[in-house]
Amino acid sequence: MLVLTGSAAAQQVGKLPPAFPPAMPPQQQKGVTIPAPKPGGKLGLRIFTLRNADATRLAKVLTDFLQEPNRPLLISVYAQTNTILVQASPEDLDLIELLIARLENPPR
């Protein structure tokens, strides 16, 4: 199983920090504005079983796209079922769900 993390603390301790730091300006990347994390937010967990995309590759894309030092983000892959497990803020989970839906079903 491949584990990709979005914070140095998660790598050192093996779990995510409990809260975000104060709000930061939004990050610009590839023409998309990524909202800054909100302070003190709770983390949620979602499981995405992919039909078309490769879970390992998609996890790498999501981590590269959203990773920043003050954004708690944990993405794990269960390759046997082509599934991605994501632990993040509710706002990030919503964004990740939209990104996965778009990458799973690109417009033709």
Overview of this protein structure:
A hairpin with a 4-residue loop joins strand 5 (74-78) and strand 6. The protein has 108 residues and is of the alpha+beta class. It is 31% helix and 24% strand. The protein has one domain: Ribosomal Protein S8, Chain: A, domain 1 (2-Layer Sandwich). The strands form two sheets. The protein has a four-stranded antiparallel sheet. It has a two-stranded antiparallel ribbon with strand order 2-3. It has helices at residues 8-13, 55-66, 90-104; strands spanning 3-5, 27-29, 32-34, 44-49, 74-78, 83-88. It contains three helices and six strands; from the N terminus they run E-H-E-E-E-H-E-E-H. It is globular.
Low-confidence stretches: 1-24
**Which percent range fits the helix content?**
25-40%
How many structural domains does the protein architecture include? 1
Helix-strand string: EHEEEHEEH
Q: What is the overall shape?
A: globular
Key traits:
alpha+beta; 3 helices; about 110 residues; disordered N terminus; 4-stranded antiparallel β-sheet; 6 strands; globular; Ribosomal Protein S8, Chain: A, domain 1
Give the arrangement of secondary structure elements.
Layout lengths: L2 E3 L2 H6 L13 E3 L2 E3 L9 E6 L5 H12 L7 E5 L4 E6 L1 H15 L4
Antiparallel strand pairs: 1-5, 2-3, 4-6, 5-6
